[in-house]
Amino acid sequence: MSRKPAAGTLRASAALPGSAVGGTSSSSALPTLSSDDMCPVCKTIRYLNKDMEFLINPECYHSMCVACVNRLFNEGPNQCPYAGCHKTLRRKGFRSAFFGDLSVEREVDLRRRVALVFNQVEDDFETLEAYNDYLQQVEDLTFDLVNGSESKRREVEATLQQYEAEHKADIERNRKAGREADEQSRRRLAAERDAARQRRLDAMREAEEEKLERVRNREAEIDSLAKGQPIGTQFKRRGQANRALEAAVNATATATAGLSGSLADVGKLSIRGLKEKKKAPAPEGPYDPFGGMDFATSRFKFVPGTLSHPSIERYKTDPQHIQHITGGYGFEEYTARALFEAFAGLGVFIEDEKEVGIGLSAAEVASMSAGIAAVGDRMDLD
Amino acid sequence: MATEDARYRETSQYRLWSFSPSKLAAMRETTNAAARASISERLLANPPPPSAAAAISAPTSSANTPDPENGGNSTPNPNALPEFLTPADELHLVSFYTSELLRAATEVFNFPDHIKTTAAIFFKRFYVTNSIMTYPPTEMMIVALFFGCKAEGMFMDVREFVQRFGKKNNEEILAGEFLLCQGLRFSLDVKHPFRALRGAIMKLASFDDIDRKRLDDAEQRAREILRFAPIMTDAYFHYTPSQIMMAALSLADRGLAERLIQDTFHFVAPPETGSGADTPDPNAPVPAAPSAAKQKPGEDKAAIIGSHLRDKVLGAIEACRDILSKELPERRDHWTNKSFIKTQISPLRKKLTKCRDPDRWNLVELQRARREQAIKKGGSEDGDPEDRGLADGAVFGEPLGQPLKKRKVEVKKEEDPFGGAL
Fold first, then answer.
1. What CATH code would you report for B1-46+86-190+337-417?
2. What HEC string does chain A produce?
3. Which residues contact A102 (CB under 8 A, 6 or more apart)?
4. Which terminal residue of chain B has fewer beta carbons within 10 Å of its beta carbon, N or C?
5. Which chain A residues are closer than 8 Å to B241 by Cβ?
6. Which residue of A has its CA nearest to B247?
7. Where are the domains of chain B?
8. Is there a contact between B3 and A297 if contact means CB atoms under 8 Å apart?
9. Quick check: A300 and B290 CB within 8 A?
10. Which region ranges are annotated with the description Disordered (chain A) (predicted)?
11. In the CATH scheme, what architecture does the domain B192-274+289-331 have?
């Protein structure tokens, strides 16, 4: 009897990669493990070996028992023992299937592989629409890979590899970002768990102490009653109760502080992660209420104390006018302002600027356009 | 670009109320045409005013109308439109009322210069985008004066204010205030050349070789010119306050103005950092200003205080001087001259009474109507957006936008957001 089992009896799939068996055209013809109590290779049945375990190799998804794997592949790579399957398998590639249905197992594997390559997230796209288009594209590829014909699969595989090669850096970055996100959520969960545990412990300790306290108080009360001084203990007890309450409040405060601190830590981390992904906005300078306007005068120099006017002098000396002087507005300010107003806008030529723009003169523009027109005419003549 | 000029370009006076002469003329024409269109529409839509109706019913009274062509026109056809004012007529009337405003501010209140000037400029600006046929100039004049006081920080009691004019009712002023604000596009800061003149004189006084008497005379004369000439002409629309000041100074004492300009734009070609030091006290430690100036490269300096710019500035001042010389303070008498008023202003006024806007002429009524309208519409819109859009937007070439937007929202509200019934 041949060692190779007949594919037909085992409902081996024609859609499996590399399986060349024609005729069995059903789409999901992979063997199901649950019903299999017999190794299709060595025909051992579960009745004989209670611990029989089936392994598959993602090369061809043909299942066989551990004993067969060990026997066939211990000495290095070997051909798949299934009839008509010419895949070369290695010991290392074998694993136990997670799903009972091997077609599902295969699809999951393929999807995992595709997801490793196409690992963009929504934040990488400008619009939701673009992201959805991308998802659609990926799903099309995946479907071809899972359900397509042999040639189609090969094509898709080639695309996949090409894309992987081209976008190595992006993929790596996204993978890292994903890992970081995982790491962060794990850390946050751990922190929350820790905090919860801590709170629980605190609460327990608190309850314990309370109980102890109560017992102690009771004893003290009895003692004091025995000694005949009930009021003091009352006070004491109340005081102690207060202190206990205070302590409890303190404890919860520190607990929440610690919790929020750890949460804030985690939050900060996640923000940092976000910033790495997105481009950080350019740092803004300090707020300038004047929008970057230059207040240094360029047309004149104002030297405080050099300029004056008879009417200003009058205000400085005349007792009748001196009463108008108030704080906050000095004569220098007035002089500076007057000087500024004398020179502000001296070089603003409204007619030119409103007609043709700042820095140009209407006459110049007219002559320029005339020149252009003249050149154009000459060119026309030529 | 000089920092002083950059700062002036930030002002609302430059951004909103500075125009080239051709643009200003075009705006006045647009305003006039818009007013003509809206007024004729209203005159045709509404029954003719009672006085005109009386004139039609009783042919004898038409003989009393002083304007023969109008009387002749209106008798056969009750729907005939009156003769409208031309843009030139409007400008003439606005100038006349501006002079009246200045006279009232001086004779009735004796306001300081900047208040008078601000009020007058408000008045002039208002009638750039609003026709004198639409809103009554005499009332708006008082409104402008009252509002000018407020804008310059002098707060008068409105009752006292109207009393000085011999009126009892202050409603008119309050009704016109917001209208004026709208017409001014809410830019209430007017830059004046008065303080600039003081600055220039102080600067000139720091040159040792100028006689004090000469300076005082020049200042007095220039101030006198500034009080009248730039307000009566369009100088505020076409020139910056410093240019107006220089022009007035040049009218008062040409030598002084030129000396100041020469001194300011003293920079001569090849840059040596020490060469720009003929300012009064170059060695004195001045915070920030000179260090910033020194850091600028030579070509930049040439663009700020070079001779090329000096010639251009002198040209602008010369042009401004020409404008100002048309309305020297001596012309003040001309505007109050009785024969002048009789021959030139009275006919225009008569024309104006015929072609004024029936809906807008009474400011109090107008405000009440607008308020009622606003209440009727649930307070969603104030005033009538079409007319405001026309008055302001049509002239500036950009509609106010806000009313349009609001209307769009309202239309949307009426539609079922989930589409029609199935």
1. 1.10.472.10
2. CCCCCCCHHHCCCCCCCCECCCCCCCCCCCCECCCCCECCCCCCECCCCCCCCEEECCCCCCCEEHHHHHHHHCCCCEECCCCCECCEECHHHCECCCCCEHHHHHHHHHHHHHHHHCCCCHHHCCCHHHHHHHHHHHHHHHHHHHHCCHHHHHHHHHHHHHHHHHCHHHHHHHHHHHHHHHHHHHHHHHHHHHHHHHHHHHHHHHHHHHHHHHHHHHHHHHHHHHHCCHHHHHHHHHHHHHHHHHHHHHHHHHHHHHHHHHHHHHHHHHHHHHHHHCCCCCCCCCCCCCCCCCCCCCCCCCCCCCCCCHHHHHHHHCHHHHCCCCCCCCHHHHHHHHHHHHHCCCCCCHHHHHHHCCCCCHHHHHHHHHHHHHHHHHHHHC
3. A30, A31, A32, A33, A56, A61, A63
4. C
5. 341, 344-345
6. A346
7. 1-46+86-190+337-417, 48-84, 192-274+289-331
8. yes
9. no
10. 165-196
11. Orthogonal Bundle (1.10)
Q: Would you say the pTM of this structure is higher than 0.80?
A: no
Chain A interface disruption, residue of B4, B216, B260, most A CBs within 10 A? B4
* Mean pLDDT per 10-residue section of chain A, whose length is 382 residues: 43 40 42 64 83 86 88 88 86 87 89 86 83 88 87 87 85 87 93 94 95 94 82 51 61 52 39 47 81 82 84 81 76 89 89 75 61 50 44
Nearest to B92 by CA among B30, B139, B28, B147: B28
Let me know if the fold of B1-46+86-190+337-417 is the same as that of B192-274+289-331: yes
Token pair for B192: 């004046």
pLDDT band, residue B275 (cuts 50/70/90): very low
pLDDT tens digits for range B84-137: 899 999 999 999 999 999 999 999 889 999 999 999 999 999 999 999 999 999
Cβ-in-10-Å burial (0-12, 13-18, 19+) of A7 comes to: buried
